[in-house]
């Protein structure tokens, strides 16, 4: 099954090598982002995988009003611009409001739509209008086949490249489950599909005023998704996850990133060699 490739600056996402989209959940500081970008760019380079750096400038959907949101758009975009220039890699971040799209698109190469906002037509239209490709995380409340309507909206809005990301589906209270067959369903809409391995390990609201998670499940889910057939894997990584200001329960340790990426690269090549 082939899809329409999406050009993200120097990276072509779809029908080729497995793309790794990775970075800390929140752009906590320039130093943190430099450390993660340097390490992940080196790892992906050793394994022949394209790399896109991701970090959020604002976590607008935190569980509690007391949760850290970030330094804001100006600070976050300055960090992303520095990472882009220093390491020569494409960068991406999420937008929450239509009026954020244009200024964010001046810096980033791929606009990300959060799962909770995946059906917001005004936001999708504003993102498409920037001319940058758009990556939409499928809402936890949607079936895989419902993502067809998201694709139809973006196509109607003239989006210059569409990516769909699976990040788990609500399963009862405080739990997510991943429908692996649904990855093929979404890819059948003709656009690249990404698997968000770290957010799929979340347990929303399970820690009271923050989201919990089961970090140990990340490798198994990521391996399974790559075996099914995806074009990219999204990983939030941090040198000290326990001290991360956001998603501390599910960010993957930076020191363990190479082992996981190596496994995913090997599985992807094996699958491509099977011609399916």
Total strands: 15
N-end to C-end Cα span: 7 Å
Rg, Å, rounded:
17 Å
Enumerate how many helices there are, as a single number: 8
Spans where pLDDT lies below 50 across 5 or more residues: none
**Backbone shape:** globular
**What is the share of helical residues?**
25-40%
Tell me the domain tally: 1
Q: What are the secondary-structure elements, in order, as H or E?
A: EEEHEHEHEHEHEEEHEEEHEEH
Chart the SSEs and their pairings.
Elements: E1 6-8, E2 11-13, E3 19-23, H1 30-46, E4 51-54, H2 73-87, E5 91-94, H3 101-105, E6 110-113, H4 121-129, E7 134-137, H5 147-156, E8 162-166, E9 169-170, E10 176-177, H6 180-187, E11 193-196, E12 202-203, E13 212-213, H7 218-228, E14 232-238, E15 252-253, H8 257-273
Parallel strand pairs: 3-4, 3-14, 4-5, 5-6, 6-7, 7-8, 8-11, 11-14, 14-15
Antiparallel strand pairs: 1-2, 9-10, 12-13
Helix pairs in contact: 1-2, 7-8
Q: What descriptors fit this protein?
A:
globular, TIM Barrel, alpha/beta, 8-stranded parallel β-barrel, single chain, two-stranded antiparallel ribbon, 276 residues
In short:
The protein has 276 residues and is α/β, with parallel strands linked by helices.
């Amino acid at each position: 099954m082939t899809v329409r490739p999406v050009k993200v600056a120097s990276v072509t996402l779809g029908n080729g090598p497995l793309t790794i989209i990775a970075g800390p959940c929140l752009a906590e500081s320039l130093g943190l982002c430099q450390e993660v970008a340097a390490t992940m760019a080196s790892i992906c380079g050793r394994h022949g995988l394209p790399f896109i750096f991701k970090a959020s400038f604002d976590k607008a959907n935190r569980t509690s009003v007391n949760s850290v949101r970030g330094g804001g758009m100006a600070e976050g975009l300055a960090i992303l611009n520095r990472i882009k220039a220093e390491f020569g890699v494409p960068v991406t971040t999420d937008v929450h409001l239509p009026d954020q799209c244009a200024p964010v698109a001046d810096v980033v190469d791929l606009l990300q739509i959060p799962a909770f906002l995946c059906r917001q037509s005004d936001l999708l239209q504003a993102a498409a209008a920037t001319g940058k490709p758009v990556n939409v995380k499928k809402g936890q409340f949607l079936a895989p086949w419902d993502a067809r309507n998201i694709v139809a909206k973006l196509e109607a809005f003239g989006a210059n490249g569409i990516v769909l990301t699976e990040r788990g589906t609500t399963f009862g209270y405080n739990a997510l489950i991943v429908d692996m067959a649904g990855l093929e369903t979404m890819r059948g809409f003709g656009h690249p599909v990404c698997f968000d391995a770290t957010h799929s390990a979340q347990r929303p609201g399970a820690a009271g005023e923050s989201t919990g998670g089961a970090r140990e499940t990340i490798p198994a889910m990521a391996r399974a998704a790559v075996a099914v057939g995806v074009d990219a894997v999204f990983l939030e990584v941090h040198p000290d996850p326990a001290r991360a200001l956001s998603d501390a329960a599910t960010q993957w340790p930076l020191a363990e990133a190479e082992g996981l990426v190596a496994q995913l690269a090997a599985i992807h090549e094996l699958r491509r060699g099977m011609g399916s």
